[in-house]
Amino acid sequence: MASDTEKLTESRYQPPEVRRRQILDAAARLAVDEGLANTSMARVAEVAGVAKGSIYLHFESRQQLIAGLQSDLWERMLEGPAEILVDESLSWSEKLDSVVEHWMRFELEHHGLYHAVFHTVPSSGDEPLAEARSLMERLLEQGAAAGEFNLDGLDIEVVLDFLLHAYIGPCFHQTDQAVAIDNVKRLFRRTVGAES
Amino acid sequence: MASDTEKLTESRYQPPEVRRRQILDAAARLAVDEGLANTSMARVAEVAGVAKGSIYLHFESRQQLIAGLQSDLWERMLEGPAEILVDESLSWSEKLDSVVEHWMRFELEHHGLYHAVFHTVPSSGDEPLAEARSLMERLLEQGAAAGEFNLDGLDIEVVLDFLLHAYIGPCFHQTDQAVAIDNVKRLFRRTVGAES
Amino acid sequence: MASDTEKLTESRYQPPEVRRRQILDAAARLAVDEGLANTSMARVAEVAGVAKGSIYLHFESRQQLIAGLQSDLWERMLEGPAEILVDESLSWSEKLDSVVEHWMRFELEHHGLYHAVFHTVPSSGDEPLAEARSLMERLLEQGAAAGEFNLDGLDIEVVLDFLLHAYIGPCFHQTDQAVAIDNVKRLFRRTVGAES
Amino acid sequence: MASDTEKLTESRYQPPEVRRRQILDAAARLAVDEGLANTSMARVAEVAGVAKGSIYLHFESRQQLIAGLQSDLWERMLEGPAEILVDESLSWSEKLDSVVEHWMRFELEHHGLYHAVFHTVPSSGDEPLAEARSLMERLLEQGAAAGEFNLDGLDIEVVLDFLLHAYIGPCFHQTDQAVAIDNVKRLFRRTVGAES
DNA sequence: AATGAATGAGGCTTCATTCAT
DNA sequence: GATGAATGAAGCCTCATTCAT
After folding, report:
1. Strand E: which bases are under 7 Å from protein Cβ?
2. How far is the CA of D18 from the C1' of F12 (A)?
3. Rounded to the nearest 5°, which phi and psi values hold at B44?
C-alpha cells in the first residue's frame, strides 16, 4: 500500500527523544522569531509538525516546555568552557580569552533565543547559571593564585558578576564581531588586572 | 472633622497626576511581585483601588501603561548622571565613580522593577537607553581626550556596551552594597585604563 | 471681564430645545457617517459640543435618544403630504404624484439617516409609520371612490404596503434623480390603475 | 442500548458542518428574537450548546459569523428563481408570478431573520443582491422583448429597484398570505404593464 | 444646569489543557 | 501513542450611565 512518495513525509511514529527535540526546536525558533510570550502551544505544535495534544506527552505543561528550552541553552553554553579550564597548555589569560571567545560566539549566535527565553518566566531558579559562575570563579582564583591576575582588594564575587554581565552588552550592537570579541578580551584582561 | 492635613481617605476625584501615579505604582508593584506577564489590567485596577475602566482614562492600552513604567524608570535613572557630567569640580575618574555610584544605587533600589519591566515587551524603542549611552560616551571621550582614560585600540562603542551591562551583575547578589559599589568603581577604572 | 472674543464660542447656557436639537443633530450626523451602532454617547456629546452627562438631562437613555431621532424623521417626513392631501386643486393622480415627489426627495436627502436609524433598534413601535399609512390609505380610498384609481379585487392594505416600500428602492442607485422620480410616479399610477 | 437511529443525545464530537449549522441556527434564532445587535457570542454559544471558544473553530470572528448568516439566507433565496427563469413552459408573466410567489413565501418565512440580519452590519457588499437584481433584470428585458411587458419610456433599473423593494411591504402585516401573494402578483403585472 | 472623571458590567477573543476517538 | 475538536477561564477593552463637584 505504501507508495514511494509517502516516505518523504515525517513518519508518524518517532522515538520520544526525537519528538522532544522537534518540539524544543520549534519552540526555540518561535521564541526567537516571534517572542516567547507570543509563542502558543498551537504554534509550537504546528511548527514541530505534531498535534497540540502530543506536546503534552513530552512536557507536562507550557512551563515545563520553557524550562526545557532553558536547560537546553545552558547545557550548550557550558560545554566549551569546562574543557578550556582544564587545558594545561593555556595560560590563565589565554583561558580567560577562550572563555570570552566561546561565550560571545554563543551569545552572538543564540542571543535572540537567550533573551527570549530568560525573561518573562518565573525562571525556575538559576542553578545552571551557578554552574557557569563556579567555572569562572575557579578560573579567577587559580589565575590570581598563579600571579597572572591581580585581584587585590577586590571581592571575587563582585568581579565575577561584573564579567558575567559585561560581555553581553557588546554582543548586541552590530559592530564587527571579530573586533568586538577582541576588544572584550582586552577588557576582561584589564578587569582582572592581567594587562601588561 | 476635616483637618487641614486631611485626605488620608481616598476621595472619589483625584487630580490626573495622582491617579496616574497610583496606577503606575500599582503596576510597578505587581510587575515586581508577580511578573509583568502575570500582571493583568484587572489586578492593577484592584491594587490601585480604581475601576478597571479608569485605567484607560490615563493610559490608552496595556502597552502604553507598560511604556509608562519604562519611561518612569529611565527618567529617574538619568536624573543624576546628567548633572555629574557637567560638574567642573570632579576629575574624569571621579565622574566615572559618581556614575557608577548613582546607577548602582538606583539598580539596587529598583532592580526588581527594572528587570521585570525591560523584558517581555516589544520595548518601545530604546531612546532613553540611547540617552544613557550618549551620556557615558561623552564621559569616555572627554576623559580619554583629557588623558585620564586610556582607550587606545579599543572601540569606544564596545567599551560602552561592556560597562553598561557590567555594573548590573554585581547588583544582584547580596554582598555588602558599599563593598560592591566600591569594587565596581575600581573595575570601571580598570576597564577604561584609569587605574594607576 | 468678558472679552469680545469670547462670545464666538457657544454660550454655555442654552435653552433646552436648542440643546436638545444640538444633540439630535449630532446624533443624526454620526448615525449617517459612522453607523448608528458605532455612535457612542461620548461621540455624540463631543460632536454636539456638550458634556456626556448633559445628554442625560435631555434624554433618559441612549434608547430614548434614538427614539428621538426616529420621531424627528417621521415628523419631517409627514409634514408635506398632509397638506397635499387636502389640496382641492389637485386631482387624485396628481396628489399621488406629489406624495411620490415629496417622499422620494425626502428619502434622497435623508436616506443615509433613514436607514441608519430604522434598524438595529428595538424600534419602539411604528406608530408614526401608521400615520403615513393612514395618510396614503385615505388617498387611495378617495381616489378609488372618485373613480380615478382602479383597485378592484385588490386589498387596499396590500397595495399600501406595496407602495410604501416600493419607492425606496429607486432612491438608492444613482440614476438621475429627476428621471427616477418621474418613473416612480408612473409606476405608482400603474400600481393604482390610474394610467390611461 | 445504542439504537441504529440513535443520537438524540448530543455527542461531544460532531462533524464540522453539523456544528457550524448548530451555531448558525442559534445565531439566527437569537438575531430574530432579540435583535442582531443584542446577540452576543456568549448567548450564541449558550443556545447552540457549545463552548464560547468553539464558535471560533468555525467562524473567525463575530463578523464572519454574521456574514455566514447572510450568505446562508441569500443562498436559499436565490435557489428557486434561477430555475423559474429558464423554465420554457412558462410565459413571462407567469415567470413574474412565480418569482413573486417564491420571494414572498421566503420573506414570509424568514423575514424576521432577514431584517434582523441585513442591517446594522457593514454588509459585506451586496454581491448576492446584485445576483437577485440581474436575475430580475433579465426577466424584465426578455419579457419586454417578447412583447409581454410594456416598459416604454421607463428606466429598467428604476423598475427593478421598485419591484425589489415593493414586495417586501406586504409581507409584514398579517393579512391572509394567499391574498397578499395574489395581490402582489397582480401589482407586479401592473407595474411592468402586463395586465390586460 | 452643566460637567466629565469614575464606574463596572459585559463584549470579543485567545489559548493552555483535556479527552473521546 | 497520536490526534485535534472542544472547553472555559481569563485577558483586554468599550461604553452607557452615575454623581461629586
Report:
1. 1-21
2. 32
3. -60, -45
pLDDT by residue for chain A (196 residues), tens digit each?
A: 444 444 444 556 677 888 899 999 999 999 888 888 889 999 999 999 999 999 999 999 999 999 998 888 878 877 888 888 888 899 999 999 999 999 888 888 777 777 777 655 444 455 567 777 888 899 999 999 999 999 999 999 999 999 988 988 888 777 788 999 999 999 999 999 996 5
Distance from CA of D6 to the nearest CA of C (A): 41
> Looking at residue A11, what DSSP letter applies?
P
Closest CB to B186 among A36, A154, A167: A154
Range 69-108 of B in CB contact (< 8 A) with A: none
User: How many other C-beta atoms can be found within 10 angstroms of the C-beta atom of residue D72?
Assistant: 18
Q: Calculate how close chain A gets to B187, using CA atoms only, in Å.
A: 6
What is the distance between the alpha carbons of residues B124 and B114, in angstroms, rounded to a whole number?
15
How many C-beta atoms surround the C-beta of residue B166 within 10 A?
Answer: 25
The model's pTM: 0.78
Shortest CA–C1' contact from D54: which nucleotide?
Answer: F6
What structural domains and CATH numbers belong to chain C? 12-59 (1.10.10.60), 67-191 (1.10.357.10)
Instruction: Check if residue D121 sits with its Cβ under 7 angstroms from strand E.
Output: no
Q: Is the CB of C91 under 7 A from strand F?
A: no
For the record, the C-alpha cell of C105 comes out as: 426627495
Residue whose CA is minimally distant from F15 C1': C40
Is C163 part of the contact surface with chain D (CB cutoff 8 Å)?
yes
D176 has pLDDT over 60: yes
Q: What is the DSSP letter of A8?
A: G
pLDDT in tens, C139-151: 999 999 999 999 9
Residues in chain B predicted with pLDDT less than 50, given as ranges, are 1-9, 120-124
| CB contact at 8 A, D76 and D128 | no
DSSP per residue, C68-105: HHHHHHHHHHHHHHHHHHT-TTS-HHHHHHHHHHHHHH
CA distance B34 to chain A (A): 9
Q: Which residues contact A98 (CB under 8 A, 6 or more apart)?
A: A80, A81, A84, A87, A90
